[in-house]
Design a protein that fits this description.
about 20% helix; alpha+beta; 3 strands; about 80 residues
């Protein structure tokens, strides 16, 4: 059985500009602002739980990117 350890699911949002009321137009930043938010952090999970957590993270906010990191290990 394969187990997944140190699972971390991050939600990434990118902000590349904002609307300026004085200039009456959208102004882009020189470099986009990237913010990461940790949604879940687990030490041990199975494939079914991993797929369920990924599905919930995507459904929760479909407009943001999801980043998943984990270590896979074979258990005998």
């Amino acid at each position: 059985m394969i187990t997944y350890e140190k699972l971390k699911i991050n939600e990434i949002s990118t902000d590349d500009g904002k609307y300026n009321d004085k200039k009456k137009k959208y102004v882009k930043y020189k470099t986009p602002i990237i913010s990461k938010k940790v949604i879940h952090e687990y030490d041990y999970t199975t494939l079914e739980e991993l797929a369920c957590e990924i599905r919930h993270a995507v459904i929760r906010n479909p407009y943001k990117e999801i980043e998943i990191t984990f270590k896979a290990k074979m258990e005998y």
